[in-house]
């Protein structure tokens, strides 16, 4: 019968989707349209009544329409027909199907709510994550894991947008060029992530580790991909582009991302300065920086012409210059520390190597005694175990002895070179190089009334300036001239012990909140500073992070 119906296109099969909404059931609607238009159908055969309608109202409407056209409904598994008993059974089944549908929906909604309230993720994983099925202890647990392929691009996307240099459309293009694609499905191949998806991603607190359910924010069980500071920075930029024109148009300037409001800082608030272009009646364009707090009426700092700020930043570079005596002193002490380290490391390696050879000899003698049955095997095993423990300790000390501070020394020397004459260097740079230099040296520049009032230095510049300041204070409190060599060895900040602490701190990353081996790394991962030669040239060096070994 099925084959006969198929040959005449009289069989209508609905895809395996929810049938609660009858208007969304395409095959069923095509069947009803045929019944109404052609009038050549006498009987409709269904598997079960629940396959046709999930509530009494839809069932009554469809059945009234079919009876008016003389069509009989037959169920293959239920006793329904045109007899009184069959119609009674039909009504009972329709009521029961409606109850079962609603009960199942309520049960599913409850379980989804319980999962969400315990931090679980509902539905398909978001960009940067993957759905994962864990089979353990006879249970099937559906969870979310980090997508190793796309998660780094999500983190990069937030970092790039936080610079203020990208619109959402430009960010979509940039990430696609770098290799970000959507997950391929059976119906759709992998493609570029749309601007709309990028917008959803940038606004979504899911990437902070939260789940939103029924208007409630819940700490999720999935791993966060970004931190609160980065997310807040992105939201500030999104808020500043609320008008349609500002979303489409971004004003680029090499100081964007480096300037913050000095007035707000005095109140304990860190607000970014944003840029705006205006056009007068004659068509001339003027560019201004202003505090983002003005948009919300929280700050009264004036608009400042960009040319005045450029001059103020250039003047501020002269204020962060290292003195020639400090540079010479630091370089001498760095060389002394490296020389002392090499001598002590050679001596320690020699001692440890000799001790390791002694252990090898003891181990061979014990093996020979065991072979000759001179010593009991249990005692041989105990002594061999002790030797193995001692060898591991010595090898650990050998690794410590091999720890090299040369990379940290090169980083310090590069930093000293950059700030030897920073104002002259800054004037020689083009706009792109100035942007790289600003972001390499400063965490923030605070501006108030057309002047730079303060600046937060990146490391190791901040550490070196602190040492220079301590050295200047020590010199000021010493009324009589002292022997330079004696002063250096007195244990001050610029003495070999002080410089050694600095280098070890940079090597281990304990001198700042940055990652180990602090490099001249900028906010944008594809732009780094490379210091080369006595003249110092600045250029991008690709997409990798700049390590201390690259600063030379």
Account of the protein in words:
Pfam families: Recombinase, Resolvase, Zn_ribbon_recom. Keywords: Coiled coil. This is Recombinase family protein. This protein has 552 residues and is mainly alpha-helical. It folds into four domains: 116 residues, Rossmann fold (3-Layer(aba) Sandwich), CATH 3.40.50; 99 residues, Putative Large Serine Recombinase, Chain B, Domain 2 (Hect, E3 ligase catalytic domain fold), CATH 3.90.1750; 65 residues; 190 residues, no CATH class. The protein is built from 19 helices and twelve strands. The strands form five sheets. It has a three-stranded mixed β-sheet with strand order 7-11-12. Strands 8-9-10 form a three-stranded antiparallel β-sheet. The longest helix is centred in the middle third of the chain and has 48 residues. It is flat. The C terminus is likely disordered.
How many domains comprise the coordinates?
A: 4
Q: In total, how many beta strands?
A: 12
Terminal CA distance: 84 Å
Strand order of the largest sheet: 7-11-12
Structural class: mainly alpha
- What's the helix count? 19
Q: Unreliable stretches, pLDDT < 50, 5 or more residues? A: 243-249, 480-493, 510-552
Beta-strand residue percentage: 5-15%
Radius of gyration: 37 Å
Core attributes:
Resolv_N; disordered C terminus; Recombinase family protein; flat; Hect, E3 ligase catalytic domain fold; Resolvase-like_N_sf; 552 residues; coiled coil; mainly alpha; 19 helices; DNA_bind_recomb_sf
């Amino acid at each position: 019968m099925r084959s006969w119906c198929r040959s005449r296109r009289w069989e209508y099969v609905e895809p395996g989707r929810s049938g609660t909404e009858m208007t969304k059931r395409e095959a069923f609607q095509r069947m009803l349209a045929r019944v109404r238009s052609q009038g050549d159908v006498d009987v409709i055969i269904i598997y079960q009544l629940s396959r046709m309608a999930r509530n009494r109202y839809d069932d009554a409407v469809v059945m009234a329409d079919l009876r008016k056209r003389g069509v009989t409904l037959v169920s293959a598994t239920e006793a329904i027909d045109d007899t009184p008993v069959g119609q009674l059974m039909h009504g009972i089944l329709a009521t029961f199907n409606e109850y079962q549908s609603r009960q199942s929906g309520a049960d599913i909604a409850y379980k989804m709510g319980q999962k969400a309230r315990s931090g679980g993720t509902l539905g398909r994983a978001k960009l940067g994550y993957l759905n994962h099925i864990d089979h353990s202890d006879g249970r099937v647990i559906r969870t979310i894991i980090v997508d190793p392929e796309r998660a780094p691009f999500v983190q990069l996307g937030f970092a790039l947008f936080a610079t203020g240099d990208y619109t959402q459309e430009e960010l979509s293009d940039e990430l696609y060029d770098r290799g970000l694609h959507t997950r391929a499905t059976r119906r759709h191949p992998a493609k570029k992530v749309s601007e709309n998806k990028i917008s959803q991603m940038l606004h979504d607190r899911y990437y902070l580790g939260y789940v939103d359910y029924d208007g409630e924010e819940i700490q999720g069980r999935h791993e966060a991909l970004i931190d609160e500071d980065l997310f807040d920075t992105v939201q500030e930029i999104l808020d500043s582009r609320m008008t349609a024109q500002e979303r489409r148009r971004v004003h680029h300037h090499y100081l964007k991302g480096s300037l913050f409001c000095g007035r707000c800082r005095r109140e304990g608030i860190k607000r970014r300065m944003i840029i705006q272009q205006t056009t007068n009646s004659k068509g001339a364009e003027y560019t201004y920086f202003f505090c983002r707090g003005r948009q919300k009426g929280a700050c009264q700092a004036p608009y400042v012409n960009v040319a005045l700020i450029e001059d103020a930043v250039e003047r501020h570079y002269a204020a962060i210059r290292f003195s020639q005596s400090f540079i010479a002193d630091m370089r001498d002490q760095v060389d002394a520390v490296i020389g002392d380290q090499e001598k002590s490391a050679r001596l320690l390696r020699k001692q440890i190597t000799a001790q390791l050879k002694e252990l090898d000899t003891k181990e061979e003698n014990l093996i020979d005694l065991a072979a000759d049955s001179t010593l009991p095997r249990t005692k041989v095993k105990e002594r061999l175990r002790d030797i193995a423990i001692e060898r591991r300790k010595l090898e650990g000390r050998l690794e410590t002895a091999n720890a090299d501070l040369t990379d940290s020394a090169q980083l310090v020397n590069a930093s000293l070179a950059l700030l030897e004459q920073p104002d002259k260097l800054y004037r020689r740079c083009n706009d792109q190089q100035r942007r790289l230099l600003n972001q390499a040296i400063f965490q923030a520049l605070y501006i108030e009334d057309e002047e730079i009032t303060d600046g937060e230095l990146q490391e190791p510049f901040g550490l070196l300036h602190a040492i220079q300041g301590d050295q200047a204070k020590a010199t000021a409190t010493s009324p009589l001239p002292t022997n330079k060599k004696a002063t250096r060895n007195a244990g001050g900040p610029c003495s070999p012990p002080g410089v050694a602490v600095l280098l070890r701190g940079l090597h281990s990353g304990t001198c700042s909140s940055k990652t180990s081996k602090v490099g001249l790394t900028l906010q944008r991962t594809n732009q780094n500073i490379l210091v080369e030669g006595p003249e110092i040239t600045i250029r991008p060096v690709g997409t990798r992070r700049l390590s201390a070994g690259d600063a030379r």
